[in-house]
Amino acid sequence: MGKEVMNETPVETASEQSLNEQPLVENENPHTDAQQIPVFGYDLIREYLLNEILGQDAAQLLYWGGKQLARKFPLHSVEDICVFFHSAGWGTLTQKKLSKDESIFELSGDGVSRRLSINEKCHFQLEAGFLAQQFELQKKVSSEAIEELKKRTSKVTFIVKWDPKDSIY
């Protein structure tokens, strides 16, 4: 029996063909892509791994991490912040109240319900820090945010406060 020689011509799959036909666009915004992240993978990292690694300081470190994310992704309006929350998979953020030195938000959605049900010590400090820093950047005054868990309704309330007299710029 002789050896068979296979023809080794490259074969492109349909998805490779369509990728090759699409022009590359500079400065594409990766945040607008509708990519799906497995919920289980997100939960593993957010609810288990980060808390394990960061230990008892997890909430405080994630708050400061949220502030750092806001510096990397500065937004120009409350509407932009709400869109960012949705795009990041953090849930549906709704502004409930706005006054001269305070804004109250409600975070809801399947992700919030899931997180509250799988981890009784669940916190939303990453989101709180992100909100605080966005207001600091937009209003140019010192801002802080606190969270209030509403486990019965599977919602989180964020109270963002700032001092109009405490300019930071």
Automatic annotation (TrEMBL):
Compositional bias ranges of the Polar residues kind: 10-21
SUPFAM superfamilies reported in the protein's UniProt record: Ligand-binding domain in the NO signalling and Golgi transport
Region (Disordered): 1-30
PANTHER family xref list: DNA-DIRECTED RNA POLYMERASE SUBUNIT I, SLR0144 PROTEIN
Name under which the protein is recorded: Hydrocarbon binding protein
Source organism per UniProt: Peribacillus deserti
